[in-house]
């Protein structure tokens, strides 16, 4: 069965960390940006056909994706902006969870992917399969 719309949820950890920082720093631009991301995620089957979405890992019915995004009213592309959104997609309940949204300079360490995977493992019980 083809699902055209997913349930999108923002996890509390994501909200209380970097999303809060984006909201304070970019104010009105952030509202427009976040609404756009939310709408893209609701229609993820189409969005995942673009080059803005990268499958990082999967385990059973859960897939982890990294999405590049740009802030509204800026001249950066999605790729060069350095802004990332990490989501989980649960195909059993058609739910997408925003786990983390950050700018690459917010992440410590030489390896950005290893660093955000550790953040997710340390703050979410369901994603210990991320290595």
Q: Which CATH class is shown?
A: Alpha Beta
Question: Any guess at the CATH architecture?
Answer: 2-Layer Sandwich
- C-alpha Rg, in Å? 14 Å
Main sheet specs? 5 strands, mixed
Number of helices: 4
- If you consult CATH, what is the topology? YaeB-like fold
Helix content: 25-40%
Strand order, biggest sheet? Answer: 1-5-4-3-2
The low-confidence parts are none
Q: What is the straight-line distance between the termini?
A: 31 Å
Brief descriptors of the model:
131 residues, alpha+beta, YaeB-like fold, five-stranded mixed β-sheet, 4 helices, globular
Detail the topology: elements first, then pairings.
Blueprint (H helix, E strand, L loop, with lengths): L6 E4 L1 H31 L1 H4 L5 E7 L2 E8 L8 H4 L1 E8 L4 E9 L8 H12 L8
Parallel strand pairs: 1-5
Antiparallel strand pairs: 2-3, 3-4, 4-5
3D structure, described in words:
β4 (83-90) and β5 form a beta hairpin. It contains 4 helices and 5 strands; from the N terminus they run βααββαββα. It starts with 6 loop residues before the first strand and ends in an 8-residue tail after the last helix. With 131 residues, it is an alpha+beta fold. The longest helix is centred in the first third of the chain and has 31 residues, at 12-42. The chain has helices at residues 12-42, 44-47, 78-81, 112-123; strands at 7-10, 53-59, 62-69, 83-90, 95-103. It has a single domain (7-127), classed as RelE-like (YaeB-like fold). The protein has a 5-stranded mixed sheet with strand order 1-5-4-3-2.
